[in-house]
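Holo prediction. Input below; ligand is magnesium ion.
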Amino acid sequence: TDKITVALTGNPNVGKTSIFNAITGSKQHVGNWPGVTVERKIGKRVHNDIEMEIVDLPGTYSLTAYSLDEIIARDFIIEEKPDIVVQVIDATNLERNMYLTTQLMELGVKLIIALNMTDLALAKGDSIDSEKMQEFLEVPVISTIGSKGNGIEGLLDAVADELHKTRVTENIFTYDSDIETRGEELEKVLNNDPYFAHYPSRWFSMKLLEGDENILKKAKESESYPEIEKILNELDADSFEAKIADQRYKTIQTMLRQVCDINTEHLSGSDMVDR
Ligand code: GDP
Ligand code: K
Ligand code: MG
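Structure of the complex:
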């Protein structure tokens, strides 16, 4: 039997813990993340002869270092390298939820999407084509209703299927050429320094361009920092951060136009873009 770790991630209140409970039942352990008082839930489940350890990560809107929750979720994904990352998405709030998807894809993790709250989306009159979404993103998309435990077996089947696939998540997000050019320059430096070996270099370089302080701190401890600093000094980090976010939202909007028929009668301003 294989033994694997599956991380559940997603925005707050999207149904992560409901799905975690539906998967693990009573086989769970609740404690704290090391050194902090943020709750950590770990549970077990055997599916298709695979022993799965399921980790319920704190809810996050992004993978920047703006909050303890984000740092815990990000460090777990980067340092512990779970075999599969399941992002639980609130189907009634796709645009905001998918901002995290763009970053998980950039991290190059083996990603599966649990399209949750599909009952509420249906009740609102939204129609979301999960197959088209899967084609666009090139990752499995499984519809679930976490609070009822619907779709959980399908989700576990997808985890088992993905495990043995060698394909890593394609990076469908490209940026304007000024960002790509700077990114490539940074990637070259990162790839030549073993200090950065366990970070996905494209993701790390985008974080540097966004001006992520936690990532910058890590970079400063490397021998190649002077070269990195030289590249970063040539640009206006603030405008890069905004441009990168803008371009991620553009890709999401392109996808949403292809996969969704949102009933706009129910949309309030705050349901649209929230950044
Ligand atoms: P978390 O913050 O991501 O862990 O979300 P929770 O699992 O705590 O769920 C937040 C709320 O949404 C709870 O009241 C759940 O019962 C409810 N919920 C979870 N999944 C679904 C779903 O698919 N449909 C509906 N209608 N409610 C759900
Ligand atoms: K909650
Ligand atoms: Mg929770």
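Residues 27 and 129 are 34 Å apart (CA to CA). That is the main takeaway for now.
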